[in-house]
Design brief:
A two-stranded antiparallel sheet has the order 1-2. The longest helix has 28 residues, at about 100-125. It has one domain (about 10-125). It has about 130 residues and is mainly alpha-helical. The protein is built from five helices and two strands; from the N terminus they run H-H-H-E-E-H-H. The chain has helices at about 10-20, 25-45, 55-60, 80-85, 100-125, and strands at about 60-65, 70.
Amino acid sequence: MGKRAAVEVEGAKQLRKALEAMGDDAVAELKAVNLEAAEIVAKAARPLVPRVTGALEATVRASGTKTRGSVRAGKKRVPYAGPIHFGWPERKITPQPFLYDAIDRRRDEVVSAYEKNVQNLRKKHGL
């Protein structure tokens, strides 16, 4: 698979460990922070997806775990997300990196969301 586009949060591991020590509710809040950031990218990616039937666009989804937010496209019934995104030279499919374009366009917004939400978590839990 191709490279990953990412926004790294400095001190995220230490924050996660501190929140884990506080219990499941605090960890759920961290998952929500990661999901919110991923949703920003997913929302920006959907209009960038090359559209024939709309099936690929419908598979763009965000998820949040305690360690990261992710955006994915494709599934078993729509297996062509990878070739569309990364290209397939042998089949003359030109890369159309809609997910990478979305993170590039919304990077500042994602960073701002993380900054705001992490500060709120730190204040709420006295970290």
